[in-house]
Design goal:
By secondary structure, the chain is of the alpha/beta class. The protein has helices spanning 4-7, 14-22, 32-37, 42-56, 77-85, 97-102, 111-121, 138-141, 146-153, 169-178, 210-222, 243-259, 267-278, 282-304; strands at 10-12, 26-29, 60-67, 70-73, 90-92, 107-109, 125-127, 157-160, 183-186, 205-207, 229-232. A hairpin with a 2-residue loop joins strand 3 and strand 4 (70-73). It is globular. 52% of the residues are buried. It binds pseudouridine-5'-monophosphate and manganese (II) ion (MN).
Length: 305
């Protein structure tokens, strides 16, 4: 599975290796959400609960991260908890994943870096909260997440609650279309907006069951159409924060980021932390609920494949 040259740097946890060898469903989980997306101890609790949800659906969870220079595919609980407490972890994307391995560092993998690990290990389904995308003001800042290019090139189904609502969702959708990435909304006609079930944007594509998503992926592969797919799964009604409520908080967080001249990799973690403060923790509860919801759907898609 793992190409020989990569084997020196990659450890697949035995339960994940066994599931892959037997062709049983595996769901990858990212770790930037643990190191940079949520505070301790909620990050640790979330990382454990999504693994239990995947397992309860009959799939094997594989949390992916870099620990002391090893790309780990599947983390035992103890290692996961240690990562959740690590305050100096790097945020690793396509540009710096190999750097962390060659310099023996520790870091959380973003959607882009987790997709690279999935392809190495032969994992086809991956659950996250929200993908990175085009930031508002990108026409000035050029801040566009490497997640979008990765979706265009790497054959993995990424289950999300849509692009994070701190982004320019319209531009993100335009760019995904340009790069040939299908965006499938699960069970709804409008794009969800991360914390909210509804955005002003119509669903580019809609499917209502996991098996149909699996079939779509197989047909793409049969045609030799390379690259990944984005599934946008609306958060549950009881857990959402309506878009109108979020809009003011998002605006205020963006304003603070501009004022403090936050740039580069720091932008997304800054905005998420600021919104957590502004909503007095409500955004974090919704964030956890939507990741759990995505893990459940990802496990069903993995089983369907
Ligand atoms: N989803 C969340 N919280 C997060 C992220 C996603 O609910 O922290 C992370 C993902 O790892 C995603 C990254 O890949 O933010 C995007 O960062 P950037 O915009 O710098 O590419
Ligand atoms: Mn960025």
């Amino acid at each position: 599975m793992i190409p020989d040259a990569a084997r020196h740097f990659v450890d697949i946890d035995p339960p994940v290796a066994a599931a892959l060898a037997a062709g049983r469903p595996v769901v990858a989980l990212e770790s930037t959400i643990i190191t940079h997306g949520m505070p301790f101890p909620q990050n640790s609790a979330m990382a454990g609960s999504v693994e239990r949800i995947v397992a309860a659906e009959g799939a094997t969870p594989a949390t992916i991260a870099v620990l002391d220079g090893r790309l780990r595919i599947g983390l035992p609980e103890e290692a996961r908890d240690k990562l959740a407490r690590e305050s100096a972890a790097m945020k690793l994307s396509r540009a710096d994943l190999a750097f962390a391995l060659s310099e023996r560092r520790t870091g959380g993998t973003t959607v882009a870096a987790t997709m690279i690990a999935c392809e190495l290990a032969g994992i086809r389904v991956f659950a996250t909260g929200g993908i990175g995308g085009v930031h508002s003001g990108a026409e000035q800042s050029f801040d566009i997440s490497a997640d979008l290019d990765e979706l265009a090139r790497t054959p993995v189904i990424v289950v999300s609650a849509g692009p994070k609502a701190i982004l320019d969702v319209e531009k993100t959708l335009e760019l995904l279309e340009t790069r040939g990435v299908p965006v499938v909304v699960f069970g709804a006609d409008v794009m969800p907006a991360f914390w909210s079930r509804q955005s002003p944007h119509p669903a580019p594509l809609r499917l209502d069951d996991a098996a149909a998503i699996g079939r779509f992926f197989h047909v793409r592969q049969a045609l030799g159409v390379s690259g990944g797919m984005l599934v946008a799964n609306p958060v549950g009604r009881e857990d959402e924060i309506p878009a109108e409520t979020m809009a003011a908080y998002i605006e205020s967080a963006r304003h603070a980021a501009a004022e403090q001249r936050v740039t580069g990799k720091a932008v997304t973690p800054f905005l998420l932390a600021r919104i957590l403060e502004l909503t007095a923790g409500a955004s974090l509860r919704t964030n956890i609920a939507l990741v759990e919801n995505n893990a459940r759907l990802a496990a069903r898609i993995a089983a369907a494949l």
